[in-house]
Amino acid sequence: MRYCSLCKRLSRDGSLFCNHCGRSFNVRLCPRLHENTRDAKVCASCGSIELSTPAPRRSKLFFLASSFALALYVSTLAFLSVAYIATYIKVVFVEQGAALPMLIVGFLLGLLWLALVSFPTRGSTGRGKHTIRK
Q1: What is the separation, in whole angstroms, between the first and last Cα of the chain?
Q2: What Cα–Cα distance (Å) separates residue 58 from each residue in 62, 94, 119, 127?
């Protein structure tokens, strides 16, 4: 998903434009969808002066907060996974206990890891067929 810093909504991953406000993501695009820098006045490829308006940049505070939250999530998940493996070995092999509750916890940890790897990465750009909204 792509986050628009203007309208604070999410658009699909391959979107070149916000589905809600029509702003482009971090670049200026001409009607032929040539990518240009945020400060370009004309398209570098075709010379068009009709360029999309990019959404405002995210603040450095937002970047720091999201980076900290992601690091906290990953480190907590790693710690819980190591603790789970140690407990699983103890319960199943040493104490000969019931494995079903441990399998359920392991499944939930797997879902949390899946959520982590499915999360969109920074700087992902998608290519799609879109038109510029005026």
Answers
A1: 23
A2: 6, 52, 18, 22
**Paired strand residues for 35:** 29
Write the pLDDT tens digit of every residue in 102-128.
Answer: 889 999 999 999 988 887 655 444 444
Q: What is the dihedral of CA 72, 57, 119, 125, to 10 degrees?
A: -150
Instruction: Tell me the pTM.
Output: 0.53
Q: What is the pLDDT of residues 41-76, one digit of tens each?
A: 898 889 888 888 887 777 788 788 888 998 999 999
In sequence order, which residues have a C-beta less than 8 Å from that of residue 49 and are 6 or more positions away?
A: 41, 42, 43
CB atoms within 10 A of CB 111: 10
Count of other CB atoms within 10 angstroms of residue 52: 22
Q: Which of 14, 16, 20 is nearest to 30 (CA)?
A: 16
- DSSP-derived letter for residue 83 is H
Paired strand residues for 3? 10
**At residue 92, what is the residue type?**
V
